Amino acid sequence: MNPSMRRWLSAMFSVEHADFEALVDLQEKVGQVHARIDIPVNLVLSGARQLKQSLYEQINASFKSPLSPGDASVYVSDHIDMGMEIMSHAYSVASDRNARTEEAYKLFSLTQNIGDERERQRSALLSWENALMFSVAVQQNVSQLPKLANSEFGLWYFHKACHAFEGAPEIITISRNIHQVDNEWLDALAQSTTTESMKALSNIRDATRTILMLLEDVLKRASSLEAGRDSLTRLLNRKFLSVVLSREIELARHSEKCFALLMVDIDHFKSINDNYGHDAGDNVLQQVASILDRSTRGEIMYSEWEEKNS
């Protein structure tokens, strides 16, 4: 049994009356965690049902008196059902809050720096295409050919664009084209005949042109609002961080890949504010944010965490 499950059961059945509020807080916290990592309620209830069944079997095997097992089973059932009720309520409240935040983040993602992003990703896609053509020209092994999904453009697309434009018909077509490039036409380049290789290259070139055209259509529909950014540093508003993390957890779960969460602390920032004034502190924040933005790839997300005067 998972250690966290053991701790939960221990808290459920060893609680004193004075600890009841703490027990309720625990159930609410578990429900909020389930909502944050998007564990379906039906899966939680199914687990509770199996857990109760196992406890009933243990009770029936342990008790000798014919009345005691029934009383113990009712006690166990009532406690677990109470925990599920509190947990489900917290899950519902947290899910509604997450949904509102996610919609706000999606609106923000649709509207941030569209012009700059369009040119940057167009350049990234064409750079990948040029790198591919060079790899083919020097007869590089097909297993070493760059995958579009792992390129700078692909990472930006799957980590940002897919979420921001979820539901747009163009996104389905772009995703299908990327899948075909990586899993069909790159493999076809390994074929020995020149005709098949040329056909695969032609298909890849057509796919990149289709992707560029569809992406252009999607980005044109976005406006130029900037409400989701901090006015000073231009970093992502902290309220969107939970949405970003939920999206990354979902991607990691389905792709079986890892992601990293890094917190950056500016040394001596408080002393800079105290000794040189808030204008100097603001300049430091702007410079650090600018360096981070210039030094990393397009799929990286930044969010300001601490207050500026801390």
UniProtKB/TrEMBL annotation:
It comes from the Bacteria. SMART domains: GGDEF (SM00267). It catalyses: 2 GTP = 3',3'-c-di-GMP + 2 diphosphate. InterPro entries: Diguanylate_Cyclase, DosC_2nd, GGDEF_dom, Globin-like_sf, Globin-sensor_dom, Globin/Proto, Nucleotide_cyclase, Rev_trsase/Diguanyl_cyclase. SUPFAM superfamilies: Globin-like (SSF46458), Nucleotide cyclase (SSF55073). Its EC number is 2.7.7.65. GO terms for cellular component: plasma membrane. Residues 257-310 form the GGDEF domain. Coiled coil: none annotated. One of its GO terms (biological process) is cell adhesion involved in single-species biofilm formation. It is an enzyme of class 2 (transferase). This is Diguanylate cyclase DosC. It comes from Vreelandella sulfidaeris. One of its GO terms (molecular function) is oxygen binding.
